[in-house]
Design a protein that fits this description.
The radius of gyration is 23 Å and the shape is globular. It has 19 helices and 14 strands. The relative contact order is 0.10. By secondary structure, the chain is of the alpha/beta class. The protein has helices at 5-14, 31-42, 55-59, 67-78, 98-110, 123-129, 149-155, 159-171, 177-193, 197-206, 212-229, 233-244, 246-251, 259-262, 268-280, 313-320, 324-329, 336-350, 391-399, and strands at residues 21-24, 45-50, 87-92, 115-120, 140-143, 284-290, 301-310, 356-360, 364-366, 368-372, 375-381, 403-408, 413-415, 418-422.
């Protein structure tokens, strides 16, 4: 699968002053695959070490962390030479070996000629729970998320459609009706399949939506297993309860996360740490409420008030038990509004936007607020073509932002100072805002 991270990886390789690379993200988003493909295409050889399963290799990091001592041992264990500039040394599951993480500092200082990259799935959890020391300033970090909708189009062989969508976005001109309908169809398919590589590969292999929930359920079970593996028993119970409440939280009219939904009498003291665990694991996305939409937005966050979204809309569909047929036919299911919002949160996160929403004294609520350099945009999300709503208007009147964006199934357009963008074109947002 073609991934956008490929360009960032190539830029890292070509950098004159290159630091060790750390790719992090939730399990099964494609970190290992992307790094191994990058190594296969751009290096003469790849020395791949899974620090969770290869205990002999992991043991090499228990002694001297000097690269000049480490490299001969790693070569002996792996039976491969590690050549400067020609070999990619790839450390997988680095969260399972604290001293391997620490070694990146010494590779940066003593052996910058060695091209070393690492991948970690629960690194944030390990750093917080096990008190790992992070080599601050000695590594370059790259996040990886599930495939966004444009990457999904590439995987489906729809590169030309993705390019046409970008052109229409740039000109703010409607796509021809036939292409518009095709893009909506593919968007709905994405809501079913999501961006997890395993689910997309299953669909590409079979052409059937029937196998997708089974693949997604397996991923959800792996996430649950991680909760038990990387947390105490009491923490695990709370983490699972928070995660399992996600569909119920998003089905409410007021999607602000409520601890009492998780458990009667629930409080931040009980469930604050489990929520942080889910965020650090990359399993959920946190969207903070703003008290005021002014630069810098982070200064006006209402910390106790937030929404949680699933890191993958396809996983949310399976977790909620929403049938593929309901999504594909565009039926008027009430939960489709939550699915649409979750899709938007996922795409914005992939594009590098922090997640914020805005509320005006409980009289109006705007789904998302985007900071773009020194500009601010209000974003309203609609699941269908019906776009009448007062929230964006109230936001524009009260906060005087740079502009407003309405995301829906309507074609591109501009009306009353509001830019209309189809949901399928969300991947274009960083372009020319």
């Amino acid at each position: 699968m073609k991934r956008k991270i490929e360009q960032a990886l190539l830029a890292w390789k070509q950098r004159d002053h290159r630091l060790p690379l750390l790719v992090n993200g939730a399990r099964q988003v494609g970190k290992t695959y992307s790094l191994r493909e990058f190594g296969r295409k751009c290096y003469e050889s790849v020395v791949y070490i899974n620090l969770e399963t290869n205990r002999r290799a992991a043991a090499c990091f228990e002694e001297d962390l000097s690269p000049h001592q480490l490299l001969p041992y790693l070569e002996a264990v792996m039976g491969q030479r590690i050549l400067p500039g020609k070999t990619l040394l790839l450390l997988d599951e680095i969260q399972s070996a604290e001293r391997a993480l620490t070694s990146l500092k010494y590779f940066a200082e003593e052996a910058p000629e060695i091209h070393i990259a690492a991948a970690g799935s629960l690194l944030g959890v390990a750093l917080n729970r096990k008190k790992y020391s992070f080599p601050v300033g000695k590594v370059e970090s790259l996040p990886l998320f599930p495939l966004d909708f444009e990457e999904f189009l590439w995987a489906r062989g729809k590169e030309s459609l993705a390019e046409l969508i970008r052109r229409a976005y740039g000109a703010l001109e409607p796509l021809p009706t036939g292409l518009h309908q095709e893009a909506i169809k593919l968007y709905r398919e994405y809501l079913v399949i999501g961006g997890m590589p395993a689910a997309i590969n299953a669909f590409l292999a079979s052409g059937s939506f029937l196998e997708i929930p089974q693949v997604q359920q397996e991923i959800l079970e792996n996430y649950t297993a991680d909760m038990a593996k990387y947390a105490t028993h009491s923490e695990t119970v709370k983490i699972r309860a928070c995660y399992q409440s996600l569909p119920v939280q998003l089905a409410k009219d007021n999607k602000k996360f409520q601890y009492k939904v998780v458990q009667r009498g629930g409080t931040a003291a009980l469930f604050g740490v489990p929520i942080d665990w889910l965020c650090q694991a990359g399993i959920v996305l946190r969207c903070q409420r703003l008290q005021h939409a002014a630069e810098p937005l982070a200064a006006y966050v209402d910390l106790p008030a937030f929404k949680l979204y699933s890191s993958d809309v396809g996983l949310l569909a399976t977790q909620a038990g929403l049938s593929p047929e309901t999504i594909l036919t565009g039926m008027g299911n009430l939960f489709m509004g939550a699915m649409t919002e979750n899709y938007v949160a996922q795409q914005l996160t992939s594009a590098g936007f922090p997640l914020y929403y805005w509320e005006s004294k409980s009289t109006a609520e705007l789904d998302f607020v985007l900071p773009v350099e020194n500009r601010i945009y209000g974003v309203e999300v609609k699941k269908g073509e019906h776009t009448r709503s007062r929230s964006l208007g109230v936001f524009l009147e009260q906060e005087k932002p740079t502009g407003g964006i309405r995301l829906s199934l309507k074609n591109f357009g501009f009306e009353n100072g509001i830019r209309s963008i189809p949901l399928y074109a969300l991947f274009c947002l960083p372009q020319d805002l």
